[in-house]
């Protein structure tokens, strides 16, 4: 449980950090909260020769209200997400989800950027960002580009992020006031990844669903945006029959691993149960 | 008497003796991070050792090449089995009569087995060097299922035992067979079954788990080549035994070996045995001449040193229609992994599993245990239980529930019907034990009344109806567990470890000013001995506990003892402490008589000193007597005031308890929530009620973990799955249920202070309570037995198979 030797860098600007990544290519890795990377290094499953600590870059901190969107800079910690009045008001599902990540000690250090950029299917924020249709700002030697969260993930730990790019911010469109939301997560204990989890954001118009977005955590090697399930529910009154069809559609796209959390069949079914419960809770929160 | 003279009650309270909820004195340092653990030890010139481990569960080793590792700056040595053969230490004896490789000798038998020991200037270099040691393996067929161990075509795991058809515990019947252990009367038992109205039979498996103390196993070995003396600091639950074993193995004379167990961060059986890490650190220190530290990491601890359980028990009960039990038959298939490294008293290959008749009056019983090898880590230690007692308690408590179900009787009523009655003690069980004392009916009734048992059953019935009508997706289980423990190993007539009788000891020295230093052969790992031992002495010799220092773990200063495990400290060392104290009190009485110029027979003991019968004003306190013992002892008497006692217990002690668990289960997710958990313990005389309660809380938390998901799993390739706290279920305060504790007091008639031991009871009784609750919940859907562990997915799967998902 001891990592191999590496060179530690602590740049003070994004440009400097990108320059270090450019000069070392595949041998360098950016470090944010470190909760995934450091254990991997201790197990020698990851052995970067250069570790680029983003913790000294002031520009990577903060949450800003841009009107229709909210921008969260990458090194904002989960604790800061929980403590943000702006998010509590405009995007309360972020607070709800953050509180289900690990434990307070980890949330003081774990960052939104690290959580979404690492590509670990067990992380909670990627599915949430897909549910919210967020975009990731990727900064490389050629400047910034934006990639939708729904297009970012390719496989476990594989994303569209290039080795010389840093995920510097997340831009989230603000859902309409009065939207209903819920993040339902089944886990074995505090600190565990989800056996299955579902994020739901919906709006109701006179008891009828006018908008519904769904995403699932840890039931495939990437987070899953359950587009079809959302479409099935849109226009419905969340009646049992339609919900059952949506749940079946969501279960259909899962492809979970069998592990200590349970066999694949169980985890698929739990994705369905979590979705059903998230829908019910979101509906009670939505203004009609 | 003026107002300043303390009353008798005040003098008694000032002692903080037995029965006092005295705060733990050791917590002053533990809560401030000032404990001194092995890894805190830093010696001049100290270097670090670490293991190259096998990625395969079963393989031949064709080549080990350490040349690249040795080129790395800072690497001092790389030891292999070939090097250890030079000092005859490539293999070591186990406590169970088997032998075990220290470093892989030509093959490996389980994943993560120790293959080579790298010694380097620091642990970072050591880990880098491990990556550079080249080992060539030739994979062999892997055997992980104990039920296939004795198949005709099963792979030969132990070529070193080739042709040896006689093992340490009798004949072996297959190349992967270790022993058969048979107890009881087969004929009588068969007869009971042939005459029975009702019989049940069930395979009840207790999965493989691990004691997982927060501090892993570790040591520092330091060989002084000039003096020829070896000092080993280590996480040892039994430091004296480690010294004896080290002397026998190394041929260093025992007086030149100093074994020191400093503060220990939990043991739970994990730190009883001797591990390759200890041997390698010692050899490396002998080779290099400098101190060598070895510290396990979490994955090494979970995957290599001392698993627990892996017992597959087929239980059969014969009974009359009215529920009276008439016979018990149990066969156990015991999976020991690659070596039989069970930590049991040497003559007991399945520990005290023959306590399996439990709290019930079985007129006939028969038990047979077959131990087998598999490609899994060795161990089989008593994880917070007296040797294999938790397996036995689980077996009988599950089986009694199954019988109740078959008879359509309430499980609590069936137990009440069959309990050994208070007037039957001392009770001789069909499998050979003499239970010292008990009052089971009173304990069970108190438990049922306190929790409102009948009302809960009515609520459960209503919930079941509601479930059937589709009004709820939640079902309710009530787990009943009544356990009898057997602890305090043990009497020399039947208990020894490698030939050393399982006595224990205490040495107490009263200083001239009336303070005390005392040392015992036991070793606390969190049990609070520094607090409770002082309380026994305080009550026995009338010196305040605060003035009594307790020291354990240093083999140079402490009297020889067999250590702390199997809830043996209070039954054995606790008795030695009381008896040594009484020797001191006897001498004090003679000194007091001299001081008061009366006959010692004219004196009586009163809280903290002696007084003249009928004239309580004429008294001498222990403080005064202590001074006199050094200042002016009676003519002809040796000065000083100290005593040693070595206690060979006449019998084991038999704590018992009634545990009830109320559980609500979400059938759609399989998530089980413990609504209430009530634990009534009877451990005889209670020395420190607060520490007992703490012990019960800890043991119940472990029981909860084990029953509800704590498991060491292997895949069919022998890969150990989940050997980290991510997957190995160690509950946090969030998951842990609230515990309601209670007690009755039935003293042990043969123990000097009537105490029985309690540390392990909650683990022993807790596991069946949880498992019975889960099983009880599903009974109405037609289920007889659902195997542990009861993690959410397995409960969900059981619900699905029972048609509960519609």
Automatic annotation (TrEMBL), chain B:
Enzyme superclass (EC): oxidoreductase
Reactions the enzyme catalyzes: CO + a quinone + H2O = a quinol + CO2
GO molecular function, one term: molybdenum ion binding
Entry-linked Pfam families: Ald_Xan_dh_C (PF01315), MoCoBD_1 (PF02738), MoCoBD_2 (PF20256)
Enzyme Commission identifier(s): 1.2.5.3
Domain of life of the native organism: Bacteria
InterPro entries: Ald_Oxase/Xan_DH_a/b (IPR000674), Ald_Oxase/Xan_DH_a/b_sf (IPR036856), Ald_Oxase/xanthine_DH-like (IPR016208), AldOxase/xan_DH_MoCoBD1 (IPR008274), AldOxase/xan_DH_MoCoBD2 (IPR046867), AldOxase/xan_DH_Mopterin-bd_sf (IPR037165), CO_Mo_DH_lsu (IPR012780)
Keywords linked to the UniProt accession: Copper, Metal-binding, Molybdenum, Oxidoreductase
Keyword set includes Ribonucleoprotein: no
Necessary cofactors: Mo-molybdopterin cytosine dinucleotide; Cu(+)
Segments forming domain Aldehyde oxidase/xanthine dehydrogenase a/b hammerhead: 32-141
Oligomeric and partner information: Dimer of heterotrimers. Each heterotrimer consists of a large, a medium and a small subunit.
Protein purpose: Catalyzes the oxidation of carbon monoxide to carbon dioxide.
NCBIfam families according to UniProt: CO_dehy_Mo_lg
Protein name, per record: Carbon monoxide dehydrogenase large chain
Source organism: Roseibium aggregatum (strain ATCC 25650 / DSM 13394 / JCM 20685 / NBRC 16684 / NCIMB 2208 / IAM 12614 / B1)
């Amino acid at each position: 449980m001891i990592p191999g030797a590496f060179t530690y860098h602590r740049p003070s600007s994004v440009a400097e950090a990108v320059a270090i990544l450019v000069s070392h290519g595949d041998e360098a890795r950016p470090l944010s909260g470190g909760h995934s990377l450091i254990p991997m290094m201790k197990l020698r499953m990851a052995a970067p020769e250069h570790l680029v600590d983003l913790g000294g870059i002031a520009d990577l901190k903060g949450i800003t209200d841009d009107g229709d969107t909210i921008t969260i800079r990458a090194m904002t910690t989960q604790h800061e997400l929980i403590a943000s009045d702006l998010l509590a008001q405009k995007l309360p599902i972020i607070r709800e989800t953050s509180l289900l990540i690990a434990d307070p000690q980890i949330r003081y250090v774990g960052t939104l950027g690290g959580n979404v950029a690492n590509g670990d299917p067990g992380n909670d924020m990627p599915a949430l960002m897909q549910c919210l249709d967020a975009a990731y700002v990727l900064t490389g030697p050629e400047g910034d580009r934006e990639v939708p969260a729904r297009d970012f993930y390719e496989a476990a730990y594989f994303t569209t992020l290039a080795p010389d790019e840093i995920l510097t911010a997340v831009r989230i469109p603000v859902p309409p006031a009065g939207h209903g939301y819920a993040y339902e997560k089944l886990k074995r204990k505090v600190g565990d990844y989800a056996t299955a989890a579902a994020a739901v954001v919906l709006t109701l118009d006179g008891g009828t669903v006018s908008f519904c977005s769904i995403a699932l955590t840890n039931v495939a090697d990437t987070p899953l945006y359950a587009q079809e399930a959302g479409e099935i529910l849109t226009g419905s009154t969340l009646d049992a029959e339609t919900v059952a069809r949506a749940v079946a559609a969501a279960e259909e796209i899962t492809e979970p691993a069998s592990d200590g959390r349970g066999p694949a069949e169980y985890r698929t079914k739990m994705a369905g149960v979590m979705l059903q419960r998230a829908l019910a809770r979101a509906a009670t929160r939505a203004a009609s | 008497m003026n107002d300043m003279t303390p009353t008798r009650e005040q003098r008694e309270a000032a002692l903080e003796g037995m029965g006092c909820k005295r705060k733990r004195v050791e917590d002053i340092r533990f809560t401030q991070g000032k404990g001194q653990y092995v890894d805190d030890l830093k010696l001049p010139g100290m270097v670090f050792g670490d293991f190259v481990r096998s990625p395969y569960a079963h393989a031949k080793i064709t080549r080990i090449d350490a040349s690249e590792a040795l080129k790395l700056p800072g690497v001092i040595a790389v030891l292999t089995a070939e090097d250890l053969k030079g000092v005859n230490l490539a293999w070591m004896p186990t406590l169970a009569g088997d032998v075990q490789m220290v470093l892989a000798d030509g093959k490996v038998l389980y994943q993560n087995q120790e293959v080579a020991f790298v010694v380097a200037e620091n642990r970072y270099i050591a880990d880098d060097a491990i990556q550079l040691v080249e080992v060539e393996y030739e994979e062999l067929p892997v055997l992980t299922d104990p039920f296939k161990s004795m198949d005709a075509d099963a792979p030969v795991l132990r070529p070193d035992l080739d042709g040896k058809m006689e093992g340490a515990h009798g004949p072996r019947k297959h190349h992967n067979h270790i022993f058969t252990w048979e107890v009881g009367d087969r004929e009588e038992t068969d007869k009971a079954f042939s005459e029975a109205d009702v019989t049940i039979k069930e395979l009840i498996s207790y999965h493989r788990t691990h004691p997982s103390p927060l501090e892993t196993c570790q040591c520092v070995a330091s060989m002084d080549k000039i003096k020829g003396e070896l000092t080993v600091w280590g996480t040892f639950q039994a430091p004296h035994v480690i010294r004896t074993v080290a002397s026998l193995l190394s041929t260093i004379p025992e007086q030149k070996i100093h074994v020191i167990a400093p503060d220990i961060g939990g043991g739970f059986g994990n730190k009883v045995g001797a591990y390759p890490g200890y041997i390698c650190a010692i050899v490396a220190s002998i080779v290099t001449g400098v101190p060598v530290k070895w510290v396990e990491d979490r994955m090494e601890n979970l995957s290599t040193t001392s698993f627990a359980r892996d017992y597959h028990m087929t239980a059969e009960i014969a009974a009359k229609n009215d529920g009276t039990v008439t016979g018990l038959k149990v066969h156990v298939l015991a999976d020991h992994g690659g070596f039989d490294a069970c930590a049991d008293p040497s003559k007991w290959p399945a520990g005290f599993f023959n306590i399996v008749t439990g709290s019930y009056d079985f007129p006939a019983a028969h038990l047979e245990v077959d131990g087998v090898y598999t490609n899994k880590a060795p161990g089989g230690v008593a994880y917070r239980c007296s040797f294999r007692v938790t397996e036995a308690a689980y077996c009988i408590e599950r089986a009694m529930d199954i019988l109740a179900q078959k008879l359509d009787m309430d499980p609590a009523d069936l137990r009440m019907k069959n309990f050994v009655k208070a007037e039957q003690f001392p009770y001789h069980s069909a499998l050979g034990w003499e239970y010292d004392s008990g009052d089971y009916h009173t304990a069970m009734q108190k438990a049922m009344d306190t929790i409102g048992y009948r009302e809960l059953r009515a609520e459960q019935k209503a919930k079941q109806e509601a479930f059937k009508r589709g009004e709820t997706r939640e079902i309710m289980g009530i787990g009943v567990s009544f356990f009898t423990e057997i602890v305090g190993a043990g009497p020399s007539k039947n208990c020894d470890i490698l030939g050393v009788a399982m006595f224990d000891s205490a040495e107490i020295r009263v200083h001239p000013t009336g303070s005390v230093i005392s040392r015992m052969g036991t070793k606390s790992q969190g049990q609070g001995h520094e607090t409770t031992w002082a309380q026994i002495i305080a009550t026995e010799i009338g010196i305040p506990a605060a003035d009594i220092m307790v020291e354990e773990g240093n083999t140079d200063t402490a009297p020889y003892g067999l250590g702390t495990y199997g809830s043996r400290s209070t039954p054995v060392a606790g008795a030695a402490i009381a008896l040594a104290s009484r020797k001191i009190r006897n001498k004090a009485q003679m000194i007091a008589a001299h001081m008061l110029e009366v006959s010692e027979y004219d004196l009586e003991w009163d809280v903290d000193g002696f007084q003249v019968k009928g004239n309580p004003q004429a008294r001498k306190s222990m403080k005064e007597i202590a001074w006199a013992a050094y200042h002016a002892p009676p003519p002809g008497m040796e000065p000083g005031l100290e005593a040693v006692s070595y206690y060979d217990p006449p019998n084991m002690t038999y704590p018992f308890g009634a545990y009830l668990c109320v559980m609500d289960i979400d059938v759609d997710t399989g998530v089980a929530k413990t609504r209430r958990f009530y634990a009534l313990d009877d451990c005889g005389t209670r020395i420190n009620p607060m520490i007992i309660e703490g012990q019960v809380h800890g043991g119940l938390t472990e029981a909860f973990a084990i029953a509800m998901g704590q498991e060491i799993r292997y895949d069919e390739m022998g890969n150990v799955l989940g050997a980290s706290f991510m997957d190995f279920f160690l509950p946090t305060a969030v998951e842990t249920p609230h515990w309601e504790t209670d007690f009755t007091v039935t003293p042990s008639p043969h123990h000097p202070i009537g105490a029985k031991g309690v540390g392990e009871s909650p683990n022993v009784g807790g596991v069946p309570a949880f498992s019975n609750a889960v099983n009880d919940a599903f009974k109405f859907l037609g289920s007889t037995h659902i195997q542990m562990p009861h993690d959410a997915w397995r409960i969900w799967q059981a619900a699905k198979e029972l048609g509960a998902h519609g």
